[in-house]
Amino acid sequence: MTTPPVERALVLGEALIDVVTRPDGSRAQHPGGSPANVALGLGRLGRRVDLLTWLGHDTDGDLVRRHLRGSGVNVLQGNRSALRTPVATAHIGETGAATYEFDLEWDLPETWDEDPGDPVVVHTGSIATVLQPGGAAVAKIVARRRATSTITYDPNLRPVLMGSPAHALPVVDALVRLADVVKVSDEDLAWLHPGVAPAEIAEQWSRSGPSLVVVTHGGEGAFASTSAGARISVEAPKVQVADTVGAGDSFMGGLIDGLWSAGLLGAGRRQALVDVDAATVQAVLERCARIAAITVSRAGANPPRLAELA
């Protein structure tokens, strides 16, 4: 008897070195990148996950690969790679919030060593969807994979790289329409649509394609809107915040993992995701909030492992 392949996720997007500077003048270097952090979180939750990214064959790239593989992430090898590994500098303020500056290029290989069989979910977001020439490649892969996989998307906007809202908005809107699940922060929505209530935008998006749209409000919790008309809110656990680096990414990883556990991922489960009940979404979001709370309680993008949630 042939053993069926283990279900897996495919994450498309940037992996890089985060240089973190703090108010006391200290400076630390960590592997990061929003999609890479999502892949890391999924790997730590016990999921099989592939990451298609753009790293250099240099010291920084080797550090990123070791970091991801140490949490079970399979970094796919392609026919092309970056000349040098990208770097992002996160400046941590007195409140723990981060602002960013970047030194990077973004592209994707034309071919890579992915295993046969379709992933149940394809995730993308952030810089990888907007910065060219890689952004166009991401959009093509997502459009092609939608026939076989659930599509999840987190805009995770970086205004310093993405220009004006008018420049980013067509990219965001196109990916929202392709996605089954969207997670977005209230800060992203305030930049994209100033003066419009986040819940109003979430409801608009959930009528344009996605079955589920989740808006995170940092320490205030999260709100979800489903295409079936359910509206769900959860509070965030109260913790001592070390910094917010990777918090949204760990929430996103938890969201994919929770929907996976509920049997709602894969193109064949698209109608089940459309019909998802409020109680299921509530339970998934509460666990996501716990995961994000653990992440912000310690320095850097350091999402919890499955055993920590027991």
Strand content: 15-25%
Q: Find the count of extended strands (DSSP E, 2+ residues).
A: 13
Class by SSE composition: alpha/beta
- Uncertain parts: none
Termini separation comes to 34 Å
**Number of DSSP helices?**
11
Radius of gyration: 18 Å
Described by the principal axes of the CA atoms, the overall outline is globular
**How is the main sheet built?**
9 strands, mixed
The mean pLDDT is: 93
**N-to-C SSE string, H for helix and E for strand:** EEEHEHEEEEHHEHHEHHEEEHHH
Helix content estimate = 25-40%
Order of adjacent strands in the largest pleated sheet = 5-4-1-8-9-10-11-12-13
Brief overview:
This protein has 310 residues and is of the alpha/beta class. The chain contains eleven helices and 13 strands.
